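README, section 4: Worked example with a bound small molecule

Sections 1 through 3 covered apo chains. Here we extend the same pipeline to holo records, where the ligand is supplied as SMILES alongside the sequence. The molecule in this example is pyridoxal-5'-phosphate. Nothing else about the input changes; the structure line simply encodes the ligand pose together with the chain.
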Amino acid sequence: MLYFDNAATTWPKPEEVYRAHDQALRQGGNAGRGVHQASLAASRTLFRTRDSLARLFKIKERDRIIFTQNVTESLNLALQGILNPGDHVLVSSLEHNAVIRPLEYLKSRGVSYSVVPCSPEGELDLQVCEQYIKPKTKLMCFTHASNVLGTILPVRELGRFARKHELLFMVDAAQSAGVIPIDVEEMNIDLLAFTGHKGLLGPPGTGGLFVREGIVLRPLIYGGTGTHSASLSQPELWPEGLESGTRNVPGLAGLNAGVEYILARGIASLRRHELELMDLLLSGLESIPGIRILGPREPEKRVGLVSCVFSCHSADKIASLLDRKYGIITRAGLHCAPLAHKTAGTDKQGALRISLGIYHTEEDIKSLLAVLEELLRGE
Amino acid sequence: MKDVILIFSSVHHTLGAEEQLMKTTWHFLVVPVPPHINEGCGLGIQIEENEVAAVLQYLEEKGFSPVKVVNL
Ligand SMILES: Cc1ncc(COP(=O)(O)O)c(C=O)c1O
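The generated complex, written as C-alpha cells:
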C-alpha cells in the first residue's frame, strides 16, 4: 500500500510513538486521580507532553496548554469559551468546518463573523483583511495552512496585524504543527489550536490549545478534575480546570514521543525533505495532461499536500481506481472545507488530494506519478 | 524530625515544583494531601521542616511557589 492521505492523519508513526503508547496503556493510572505510583506516572506523562509541546511552539507558560481530543475540540473550546454576544470574528476563506460550524452555531448566541476572501490559490491580502474589521471585532481566527490548497498563510504578518488592531489572534495549526516552525511569541499568537495525529505524529484522540496568559476562557466541559474535589463548582485552574474528564494518557504519551521525534530530527530537516518531494510531485503532475493543480506552484508556499482536478474524470473515480486497482490511498471530495473549495472554484466537483508523510521517498512519488500517467493517458 | 507539606494550585504546578526539586539534593516526596485540608489539588510535596525556608526560596526563584504550607 502507498499511503498519501497524511493530511487526514499521518501514517505510519515513528516506532517510538507506538512503543510509548503501548507502554503507557500497560502501565495504567489515571492522571490526577489519586496519588499512587500509577496515577503519578500518568500525571507525569501529561507534564512531559506539555513540556515537549512548549519547546516545539516556544511557549513559556506550560500550564496554559490544555489537552483536548483533537483540534476541533480545541477550536470549539476557544470559540465558545471566549466569545460573547455582540462579538465579531474574522476568518479566512480557507477555513475548515472545524472553525466555520462552531461559528455558525454561535450566530444563534449573537456572535457574528466575516470571511476574508483569499485568491483562488489561497493567498491572503492584509489590506483586504483590514476592510473587514468592525468596531466589535474581537478575534481573528486563521488556518496556518489550507488542508485543500496547501497554501501557507502569512501568520507572522497576521500576528502583527492583529496586535496593531488590538485583536486576539488564534491559529488553526492542524496542517502546520510539526511541519513548519511555530513560535507563539514571535508570531504574536494568542491562541494556538493543534491536533496530535497529523504532523505531530501522535495517535488520534489527542490535541490541544495554547491560551496566552491573561485571556479568560470558559470551560467547554464541566466535571471532575481530580482536584479540589470537595468543591461542587468548577475550579478555576490552569490547566486542569479546563480538562474535566479522564485524559487520553496513552495517546498523550504517544504524542510526546512524536514531538520528541520531531525535535530530535529537527523541523528544518523534515521540511527540507518534504520540499524536495513536493517539487518532484508538482513538476510530475504538471507534465501529465488533463490535470489542474490547485494552490500555488512554488513548493515553499505550501505544506506537503497537493489537490488536483482532472479534465476528463471525476476526482472520486480516480481516487477509487487508485485505491482498488493500485493500492494507492488518496482522498477525494471536499475535505470538510467547502469554503476553501469555493475559493478554488472546486466546490461542485471536489478534488483529489495527495498528501505526503515523513517516510515517503522519491521512489514513492515516482510510483504514484507513473500510475496517474497510465490512468490518464490510457483513455 | 517533623515534616511539612507544600500545597500547589494544580497537579501541573506540583509536578513543575517536583521537576525543580529533582535538580537538588533535598529529600522530598509527592504525597496525598489529607482531605480536611480543603485546598490545592490533592497532591502535595512533603519536605523536612528545617528545610522549609530554603526550599521555599528556591521554588520562588523558579516560579513554583506553593499556595500553602501545612504542618503535619
Ligand atoms: C485546517 C484543519 N482544521 C481542522 C481539522 C480537523 O482536525 P481534527 O479532526 O483532528 O479535529 C483539519 C483536519 O482535518 C484541518 O486540516
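What to look for in the output: Residues 3-71 of chain B form a domain with the Alpha-Beta Plaits fold (CATH 3.30.70). DSSP finds two helices and four strands in chain B.

Section 5 describes how to batch many such records.
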